[in-house]
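Exercise 7. Given the components listed, write out the predicted structure of the assembled complex. Treat all entries as one system.
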Amino acid sequence: MFGGKATDGSGEEVEAAAPDSGRVLWAYLIVQVSVFAGLAWKYEFFLLADQVYHRLPLSDPFFPAWLQSADVIRWTYLGSLTAIILGVVGMLPWIRMLCASAQVGCLAIMLLHQGSHNDMTFATSLWASIWVFWFATGMDRDEPADLLRRGAFLGRAIASMILLGGAVGKWTAEYWSGEVFYDIYFRERDFWVFNYLRESYDAETLRGIATWYSRKVIVVETLFGFGLWLLPPKWAAAAGVTIFFSIAFFSNNLLYSVLLSMIGLSAVGFFVPKTMDDTSTRGTG
Amino acid sequence: MDTETRRPRRDPLFVLILFGVCVVTVWLLLMPFYAAIARVTMKRFHLSTESFACWAIQAPVPAMYNFGNQYEIRDLPEGLITPVLDSSRPRYINHFPTRVLTFANGRYSLLSPGQDRWVTIRSSYRGQTLETKIHAKPIGEGRFEWIRESSEILSTGGDR
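Answer.
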């Protein structure tokens, strides 16, 4: 699957591979699996949502009728998962590209639908899926090291933009004071970090911790939003995976649905070879 | 695969996506300095943008935990006393405060009793606050109508 043997002019066996094999295929698979995992993370939630949207339709003239339909959200959600599965098992370049375009289309609809526009899962998954579509167009024809290098750069540019999107909206007094995070998380959120802090500290101290928690989030998102895309691929990959994982780990489990796709996209940097003529990109996984 | 096809090629799609990332990033970075951009984004959060198309084009702009967003819920119109639901203290919500009505769990908890609900949402950013009032009116068979009663900028304290 990931490589093969061939004979060169000297009679020695050298590794030759299908152009979309090895690290390139692993990078593709990791991003696709992470997008799938992020979407599937909320499967139980969407089962509940499906029932609620069918039972309690909310008519808002702002949205076109079809973007209020409970059936549309059901089938586009399932369609996005199906497109990922078919793209991964399809293996042929045209199947990958077709499925990736369907994946982008489904997630774009989810991002605009009345019942799911407010879920950032579909914003991060859409950007990761746009990356997947672009990557799929090059897997069978581009030089692997060059494709990976460009893929990692595009991945960390997207990750930087996502972090800046979080940071800029928090450059306001309500976040700098910690007021928002205190109300959303520290007061009553049932999650190990906040349960521990509530059990360990009095109300006044807890409010102070909320302030510094909030400022830490602003500083990290700002610093890496500006700087992540400038880092070397492997450093950026390590930083991206750590940051996106830690945001969910220290906030709430539902955030994995938003951030798993970004973790996968960041991880592409691990597959970039050290030099352009590094033959390890070809068929060695 | 011969080396010809492995040569770095022109990649307009890569350039196009990178251009999109740059446009979104510039838009984000201008927001703290141009009050109009913050207002456009707050209207996006309140589903109060002038047209659906103008709202939809902003959809790819990441907005995780943006603005100080608050909501209040009443089971009686504003001005009447003794609401049953606790509206004594506005609560914060991470983003898109309309999700208290549109998103599955909020929609279920507020609308499943089948009664009218009045929701006030506010988003604040660097001295500006957008307040929107929504009436969720039951129209039979479990259906509700979303009536936007008002949406206006309350304060413009100026950019800091």
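Discussion: The two ends of chain B are 58 Å apart (CA to CA). The mean pLDDT of chain B is 88.
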